[in-house]
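pinned: reference chain
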Amino acid sequence: MQLNPRFRFALYSAFSALVSTGAAWLVVDGLKDASSGDLWQVIAANLLMLHGGAAMVTLMLLGALVPLHISHAWRTKRNRITGTAMVTFNAVLIATAFGLYYCGSDALRPWISNVHIDAGLSLPILFLVHIFIGKRSS
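pinned: its structure tokens
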């Protein structure tokens, strides 16, 4: 089931913003210990702010996907495997983002961070596979 072109553009843009700001933050976070660490610290903070803003937009768009795309595709039994994986990965990202923002445990935070990073870096590949299979089945 193809999405409205404007909605698809908004969704792809939001996902692109999330992936690019998250990946850029990973690089910049590794540079915070360099001699110019203060600059990298400011850049990292700004990237996290942009990442959080993109996440809020994406949450709205994901909510709209349920009645517009997910429920229809489920009823017509189309692309269920990658669709279920997409929903699962996004749920993991939402839960781990919540954990990163609100979890005060120094023992859990590194684990939550690793799960969030792994899922976030895997999602673009899954997203492309989901689109490819969806286009092939239509």
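why pinned: The chain is about 85% helix and 0% strand. Residues 68 and 89 are 19 Å apart (CA to CA).
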